[in-house]
Amino acid sequence: MEPIFVSGHRNPDTDSIVAAMAYAALQNALGNREYMAVRLGPVNDETQAALDRFHFEAPAHISNVRTQVRDLEYDTPPVLSAELTINAAWSVFEKDTALSSLPVADENGMLEGVITRGDIASYDMDTLRQQRIDDVPIFNVLAALEGNVVNTPSHPVDTLSGNIVISLPRTHAEHFGITPGCIAFVGNQPDAFREALEQHASCVILCQAEYTQEHRALNPDLLIIYTPLDAYRAARMLHLSLSISRILSHGKLVTFQLDDYVDDVRNRVLENRFHSYPILDHHGHVVGSLSRYHLLNPRRKKVVLVDHNEMSQSVPGLDQAEIIAVIDHHRLADVQTINPVYMRNEPVGSTNTIIGTMFQEKGLVPPRNMAALMATAIVSDTVSFKSPTCTSKDVAMAERLARIGGVDLEEIGRSIFTASSSDDKSPKELLFTDYKDFHIAGYNIGIGQVTCMDSGQILGRKEELLDLMRLSAKEKDLDMMLLMITDVLKEGTALLYVGDGDIIRQAFNVEADDGETFLPHVVSRKKQVVPALSLLWG
After folding, report:
1. Which domain holds residue 489?
2. Domains in the chain: how many in total?
């Protein structure tokens, strides 16, 4: 069964990562085993410290949810061995009239080519002009002729080569038309048999004729094969005893991988006119076959969005996926769905508060370590309950989860906010680890946030942070870029900004100079900073 991805937003914070894990755990506990937590970006130091503390692995990383070949209802036709006879290959086509082509693999299972009905028909017509075979294994010959070797030549052969001659009386000069090295098809014709020996044919095939004492008395030292088929049919079957590797076309072979994106596949299919295209796994083995009609209605990946509902913050390719649920505590944004979905959006400080409530409503107690991790996520997203987004419901749920997990909320707060501002972080990590783009009234603005116990430590790197912000704002074509350095102890935010300082002064009613200001009692990006700018810009 295909997984249902549970995904937080890009540049995930602790609440986003843990919400994905907790919601997947809830659904799995309810018997929906296909739910799988994933992440869209690297795990920051704060989140990693929490995961390590409670013995969890980070969710798997995905880069997009674009529809891939593996999502299609592609065909799984037989994969023929390159050594299979042409006749046997035709039998496969006869059993399934819907098949127009079949993949052919070598002895190692690697794709060697594709054979079509047309390839076999074309070869069959060519044999009317080309009355010769070369190096056909005796095993294939005996199978095709339903025959057996009736003598023991002094020099056994494993393959058969030569012109094919059906021995019929002709003019006196040509007699039976048998030539040196030919493969002679004879019936109950002692004279023809004798001539084959005299002309040193490579093989005599007795068609519906016994190998008599008279034949044995001639002591033939060439290969004698008996077949119950008449001469005409036996000759045709001999042609069809070649392996299909002999007639595979050596032109351009178009294949696709399971991980190829359908958008790219569609373009390549439009450039070609093949009936079908082999699908290979990462080892190069054939797993199926794709035709044009498979691209008409592809199966979409299924996704649950947690801690966001905005396209710019979600997984790339979301427009090609099927959203089945949204669990969030942010404003409603621009995510659109094809069908009605389960939607739960509550004005609380953490998505994990909502998911904790869902555990409670289902009568399920989260496992001890999961409960501790969820409590940590609530403390993180509410800035130890100091954020204006924090509600009494957040506090009550965090305390309940902490009791189940056996952890102290104050100690957790000190631990995670110290980890998020360690000295070994680069300016890029500080700016972009928890970063979001916003589009407000025609303005493009990027806002990063770092929550710490000592903002002075990070402000000591102010100039290199501002240099990076100027460069990034130019590259991303932003009107303004902000970095919130939220100090838990000071209960406020040191704000670094690149852009028009008058906007900062008017929006927050503070003095702003040299790219820096302090916003007392401001700790929330979504509840305080973004609304203030939205109000200013109308």
Report:
1. 427-537
2. 3
